[in-house]
Amino acid sequence: MLKKQKLIEVALGEQKADLVIKNAQLVNVLTEEIYDAEVAVVAGRVAGVGKGYSGEVEIDLKGAYLTPGFIDGHVHIESTMMLPHRFAQAVVPAGTTTVITDPHEIANVLGLHGISFMREASQNLPLRVYTMLPSCVPATDFETSGFELNSYDLSLLMDKDWVLGLAEMMNVPGVINRDANIMAKIDLALQNNKRVDGHAPQVTGKELCAYIASGVTSDHECTDPEQALDKLRQGMYIMVREGSAARDLDALMPILQHNNDRKILFVTDDRHPEDIMIHINGMVQRAVENNVNPIKAIQMASLNIAEYFKLQDLGAIAPGYRADFNVFESMKNFTKPQMVFMGGKVVAQNGKLIESLEGLKIPQTRGSVNVGWLENDCFQIQAKGNKARAIEVIPKQLLTNDIVVDVKVENGLAVADVDNDVLKICVVERHRASGNIGKGFVKGFGIKRGAIASTVAHDSHNMIIVGTNDEDMYIAQKELVKSQGGKIVVQDGKVLAKLPLPIAGLMSDQNMEYILEKSIELTKSAKEIGCVLEDPFMTMAFLALPVIPELKMTDKGLFSSKIFNFVDVFDIETAKV
Q: Residue 539 contacts by C-beta under 8 Å, 6 or more apart in sequence?
């Protein structure tokens, strides 16, 4: 009550504000206007917008533009391989003051403990971190995860104020078929008046209607304007994703000027360290460069997201709203805010975080890479013919093709054929030491020698390996067991590059500079052994996600989304010839 009383007194000009921002060109996303204004702030909230305010601290913007702080509407922090405070160091200077996270990466490894770990590690940061509870742990029954979370597990957290709802519902068939466990999770969110996010690649027609009717209200899997418009027409919010592997912003640019632009949200989903120094601000920048109205672009990065998630005090600059702001020199250049405010305090200036986050106490986690004993011959594939179905990578997309390739056979074994870019792909179960290994072939990496491997493999995060020979694949898996997770490039028995990820096999305990350096080394080394993909590790990570069409590999085998079941590597009847 005292806080509200002071807000009123400052709004009336009866008391000095904690902070007054003067001579600002205020970008009002509520009315889509820009005008001269002063903004008075007290106790971290806006008290008044107008003229004639005085404050204990006054900052003269000298005509610079004041926008709301940017919000990332859907992000997996674990995908950056950084702990939350390292992530904040990277994105806050870019103008991101709030993120809506889905910790399903770590939840697939550590369950509720993983969610609690991320929550605890996100405290006392110059970044607001909200959570959508993972809906699909595991994503399907066709893979082995570290944990399973049912509706009862989620009910322990759903009523928390830092939880905004149920994260991307990837099990579309489960919704369509009214699976009791899936329905219970959706109902749990709706009963708590919270959102249910979607994940519906290529879902259309009556199935899309049924999916939306269940309570799902958003989707971030649109890759062309027609898909997006179809879902907008059915009332969905479209999260335009610009990640490291899945870059949809340019393809979806036409819908940013559609009449339903208030139902468009900017998200990053999965990004590697190389791509987060410019964050949501980069999406705003590119939209403006493509003739999207700057105020509308800012709405997509702030107000639209806040209103969708029912965060009524975020996303705009008006009395009662939290004082999260960005300062830009012009409405044409959003690549580096001059200042970033969070809760009425300057937290970043000219691309640098003001307060050091070193020395924060990080909660503990257990080791999570538990692989059954493997021998050199574990990756062998017995040939059943001279043709096989293979996963074909589509550059810059999560979708893959299901194709038929010629198989190279040696001594009765199907082996990699580097001349035709047909490589081995294996997924090794790493949670329960079950000994499961899914084996098959992949086309599109271009690797000529050696192997690459990672314990980041969506969403169950088993160990995934792509290689030209069994020996290097074996060494790669052995080295990742030693470091309790990570990413690695091996050639001729030697480690060319490695980034240990000892926290759940997903994140490093080192600083951002170290992670970035090692990430660059990994990409460089992958290219040195012939890889032609821009981001091979991000692409590889999604080859184990069976809910993304069309063909994927899990620890239990080769999986086809067309029949939503396993297929034999040598069964080519339903594949593309």
A: 245, 393, 395, 533
CA atoms of 252 and 304, how far apart (whole Å): 17
Per-residue pLDDT of 175-212, as tens digits, reads 999 999 999 999 999 999 999 999 999 899 999 999 99
Fold of the 69-308 domain: TIM Barrel (3.20.20)
Instruction: Report the C-alpha gap between 167 and 119 in whole angstroms.
Output: 15
End-to-end CA distance of the chain: 70
Tell me the pTM. 0.91
User: For residue 93, is it left (φ>0), alpha (ψ between -120 and 50) or beta?
Assistant: alpha
**Coil vs helix vs strand at 58:** strand
Q: Which residues pair with 322 in a beta bridge?
A: 45
Helix (H, G, I), strand (E, B) or coil at 321: coil
Note the pLDDT tens digit of each residue in 55-80: 999 999 999 999 999 999 999 999 99
Q: Where are the beta strands (DSSP E) in 394-461?
A: 400-406, 408-410, 413-415, 422-428, 437-443, 451-454
Residue with tokens 């069409």: 549
Cβ of 563: how many Cβ atoms within 10 Å?
9
Domain segments of the chain: what residues?
69-308, 376-566
